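This protein record is not my work; I was only asked to verify it. Where you disagree with what is written, explain briefly why. This is what I was given:
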Amino acid sequence: MLTYLPGIFLPKHYRFLKIAKQVLGISHKVKLYRGDVLRAEDLAEQERLAATLRELVRRSAKPDEIEPAITALHDVLLRNGGKVYPLTSNADWVEMIVMAAIVAGAIRSFAFQPFKIPTNSMWPTYNGMTSEVRAPGSEVPSFATRALEKFQWTWTYVERAPVDGEVKIPLEYSGFDGKDKHYRPRGRSAGGEGYTLVVGNTPLAIDVPADFGLEGVLLRTYFPDYAKLPLRRQDAERWDKLLVQAGRDNRIEVGPNGPLLLTGFKAKAGQTVLNFDILTGDMLFVDRVSYHFVNPSRGDTFVFKTNNIPGLADRNGNPSQNYYVKRLAGVPGERLFIDADGRLYVNGSVVTSPEPMVLNSQRATDRGYYGYLADIGDYAYALPLNKEYTVTDRHYYALGDNSANSFDSRGWGEVPEKDVVGKPLFILHPFTSHWGAAK
């Protein structure tokens, strides 16, 4: 009496037809995978028994007829099956993993795609890399806390003084404004590896991810009062004010390696001079389907390819291969303008939706919206909004919610309609206040 096949129980006769079909499927698979290595007579016997069972299934034979046929074919498959039949647990897992990868690839290509927010151009709607800064003397998170934070994609940085001395921030000259000489914090080192502080006269290298700027951490660590100023250009303008005042107060030291800002923080060797966390950007699920049926609307956040945007090509003219996420500020034919107070006008009226665009136009700094800026510099493909601009046919105008820190259509031009990928649907990770339906 046949009572068991791998993975199949026969508790009742009514299941025999279903089992027969499964055995026939296995027979077909053995023929495909091993037909060329089996002896001709063995394959012929398998085919003969399969044909008999197939005919019994076709006419819904009774269990006392179909059971012997299943048993006969099963016995031959045990001889002919090799590694195809019976299945081992490893084979089951491999097949499952392969199928899962195929399904995931299909979903990613045609329905939903994960997308990582790399920068803070859409802050506070979405987070790119952000930081949580602690005073140098604050307690350093324990090893257990730091290990747990990895699940939130958070990394703790604790930098210690190599020698005794005052902490100094390297600067670079940026021009004159009347009587005041202007500086700005020096960026990454020439090789792009990271930033440098100076303690006493000794350099301290600080290596952080490529998409992360350390300037905000330095401002919040050593000059927290300036970091709170609600200025439209945010940290860039805060640094301007700080460094102008520092020059007037003789707190900029000029030496053989360039100008240095004296922070006033004097450390002992081994003492913590920087204590901060870097939090990764939001991970979004992007809906790739909806825009096949409806057109994007003004106010949507949308993801798009950048390979057909000349203003984003590299210095050698090679197209960008990145995906960007911005807010769609204007559809074809709409007239856009930003006034001196940071309000966005569409077709002559201040925007009334969605909420992030309204909050920006109201300069709701308590909510993290500092108002729109009409331009972001003199770029070859820039489309500034200090004068009314009409969006061209089959293109969209993109703005970042974090207007002072967004490289968008004001700098590189419009987004071709054909390159729109989809709209953010859900924030998957990390599990912060942003988790849930995307705005």
About this structure: Confidence is low (pLDDT under 50) at residues 1-13. Residues 4-85 form one domain. The first helix runs from residue 16 to 34.
